[in-house]
Amino acid sequence: xxxxxxxxxxxxxxxxxxxxxxxxxxxxxxxxxxxxxxxxxxxxxxxxxxxxxxxxxxxxxxxxxxxxxxxxxxxxxxxxxxxxxxxxxxxxxxxxxxxxxxxxxxxxxxxxxxxxxxxxxxxxxxxxxxxxxxxxxxxxxxxxxxxxxxxxxxxxxxxxxxxxxxxxxxxxxxxxxxxxxxxxxxxxxxxxxxxxxxxxxxxxxxxxxxxxxxxxxxxxxxxxxxxxxxxxxxxxxxxxxxxxxxxxxxxxxxxxxxxxxxxxxxxxxxxxxxxxxxxxxxxxxxxxxxxxxxxxxxxxxxxxxxxxxxxxxxxxxxxxxxxxxxxxxxxxxxxxxxxxxxxxxxxxxxxxxxxxxxxxxxxxxxxxxxxxxxxxxxxxxxxxxxxxxxxxxxxxxxxxxxxxxxxxxxxxxxxxxxxxxxxxxxxxxxxxxxxxxxxxxxxxxxxxxxxxxxxxxxxxxxxxxxxxxxxxxxxxxxxxxxxxxxxxxxxxxxxxxxxxxxxxxxxxxxxxxxxxxxxxxxxxxxxxxxxxxxxxxxxxxxxxxxxxxxxxxxxxxxxxxx
Length: 562
Description:
mainly beta
């Protein structure tokens, strides 16, 4: 009989009957490993005529025998098997052909030659109520678990960590995952982190390791919330507390990246130093403010007495500091500079078509930034983005409706025509040239504008606000949606920041509007959204404004030359 002794996490498992044995993180496995880097179905032990063979089951991080990665390996003696990157609860020792004690013999401890050379196995866990999902094992029982310690791997492996480990707290239970790892959160028993609260979806979210950190992705229809705001994707390197299914009443999921003890100590030292600097800065600011209150009257009197002086106080300056939040006044200014664009044209068959989009006023004389598919649907480079039945002709003109307030629909007031359009970038600049009836304008326009920002300054996790006139709102008034920058999309044509991916809601009608930062500057043009059939997750796409600055400059040059 081909018997096996498997030693894992201070436990000795004996298998006498020759049968297929499964190894992995799934609780249904015959040999359960705790490490987050171990696949749910990582490997198999298969009995053959003269022994055993270990076979990798297509795991993500591989199976190693004595430090060498294998897909299939015949066991000829005791071996140490490593499943994935080195971590607590990721390795096991397999000893084939162990003599089986006679059935009538009383149970005895495993003999010394095969006993695990460590502390005795822990007592069995307390009984769990029927139907409750067991928490994942928490690593070895015989060794001290050093949080975020560089793992000792197989010979030749790189011991350096790829990022912080992760502590997950849900419903009073703790789970630890080594970096890198991927795990799921939900109500299904098969989830890696099981949450029994019925507000949580069966498959609510997933967490994946990224270089130097982690990313949470919502996979539920009910949503995941941070600080009351719904999110679809959240890269994080510091602890966050999420609510699942409801912004207030949903079960809480805490995600805590764990650095090594030395790294955490250095981080706290930096925080304390920053707090001291902040206090010192506040004191200095108070002194400056008091000094200013004393000095200002003296300066004013000096200017009155000596009118020929150049002014001791110098010129007034602008700070240029970036605001941490978008103020109400800044948002109101952005709303006023957002317009609704509409047009009537025909499709490829000659049938009439009406459509609408959005735009942003970038010059007081009526220059508007928008999408090419809004202003010039026949622009070169757009054809591949439309199927044949969706292709439409360029309209004769666009109707421009200015924002009238939060609760009043925008009514057309002007006509606009295309100055420049680039179908490859899906961007266009149009100018107002007449009133809505086509009559020449009596006076020069002086419209509110939005300044152009710098999209290269953006980072993932930054706030973004989208303004426009999506039809889904059914209000006719300007609509505001907020979110964060999820990631950047790369392309061969436009480089590493070809598009900005965001969890901000972007719907038909938002096209051509403004995506702004917390300084109320345009950082991009909302252009499209993507989603998979049957999956309630939509990815909004924004064209970075830095890609269209040349187009804007060319349009302004054309107008000044004309």
